[in-house]
Amino acid sequence: MSARDRILEAAVEIAASEGVLSLGVDNVNRRAGVSKGAFFYHFKSKDEMVMAMLEKVLQDFDTRIDARIAEGLPLLEVLVDVAIGEVKERGALIGSLVAAIAIDPSLAKRVIHSSRCWQDKACHQSGLGPRASVLLHLLLDGLFMSTVKKDTERTEAEFRELRAVILDAVRSCPENPVSGENKPSSGTSGGS
C-alpha cells in the first residue's frame, strides 16, 4: 500500500473512532506510520487530506451503487439501500464527515453535487417528479445527519422499517401542490 493510501486509511480510522477534530497531521502520520515529509509530499494541507478522504468515501459509495445496479436492481431502491448500508457499517465515519462538511463549505459543495447527481438519476429512472426528488434528498440527508449523534444505535428491524418508510414516502409523494382554494368536486353544479 502506498504512503498516500496509508495516510487516507489512517485518516478514515481516526475520523471513525475519534472524530474529525482528531485529524491532526501528527496523529494521522503516527497511525499511518509515515513522516511529516511524506504527508506533505502527498497533501499540501490537512484540508486537502480531508477532501481526499471524502472523495474516497464518495467513490466507495459510487462503487457500491454501481455494483448493485449491475445486478439489475432499481436505482431508487439501490440508492436507499446503499445509504442505509453506509449508516449501518460506517455510521461513525459518516457522522465525522457530516461534522467536517458543516465546517468546510468546499466539502459541502462536493457532497451536495454527488448526492444530487444520484438522486436525480434515481428520480429520472423511477419516473418520480420534482417534489419526490426533493423529499428523497431530504430523507437521505436526514439519515446521514442522524449519524452525528453517536449514541443512536438502530436494530436490523428498525433499519428495515426505515427503508420501507423512505421508499413509501418517496413513491407516494403527491406531485401537485395542494392549493388553499376549495375546488368544487366533479359532478356538482354551481346552482339549479
Unreliable spans: 179-192
Largest sheet: none
What is the share of helical residues? over 70%
Structural class of the secondary elements?
mainly alpha
Amino-to-carboxy terminus distance: 84 Å
Radius of gyration: 21 Å
Number of helices: 8
Output mean pLDDT: 84
What is the chain-wise order of helices and strands? HHHHHHHH
Principal-axes shape call:
elongated
Name the beta content range: under 5%
Number of strands: 0
Describe this structure in words.
This protein is mainly alpha-helical and 192 residues long. The model is unreliable at 179-192 (pLDDT under 50). It has helices spanning 3-18, 25-32, 36-42, 46-70, 75-103, 105-126, 130-145, 156-171. The protein has eight helices and no strands.
SSE topology sketch:
Blueprint: H1 3-18, H2 25-32, H3 36-42, H4 46-70, H5 75-103, H6 105-126, H7 130-145, H8 156-171
Helix pairs in contact: 1-2, 1-4, 1-5, 4-5, 4-6, 5-6, 5-7, 5-8, 6-7, 7-8
